């Protein structure tokens, strides 16, 4: 088995930041859907 290259701190930060951004987008979309549903009632 090949050992994976150990990632630098900067690489880990970048990865986390990307993940946070996509999570935030997802949450924003959910929020919009909920607001839309709420307005329809």
> Nearest-angstrom radius of gyration?
18 Å
**Number of helix segments?**
1
Distance between the termini: 57 Å
Shape: rod-shaped
Q: How much is the average pLDDT?
A: 91
Sheet with the most strands? none
Strand content: under 5%
Percent helix range? over 70%
Secondary structure class reads mainly alpha
Count of individual beta strands: 0
Give, in order, the helices and strands. H
Low-pLDDT runs: none
* Oligomeric composition of the shown chains: single chain
Précis, in short:
The chain is an all-alpha fold and 41 residues long.
Keywords:
41 residues; mainly alpha; rod-shaped
Characterise the protein shown here:
The protein has 41 residues and is mostly helical. 78% of the residues lie in helices and 0% in strands. It contains one helix and no strands. The mean pLDDT is 91.
Helix and strand layout, with pairings?
Blueprint: H1 9-40
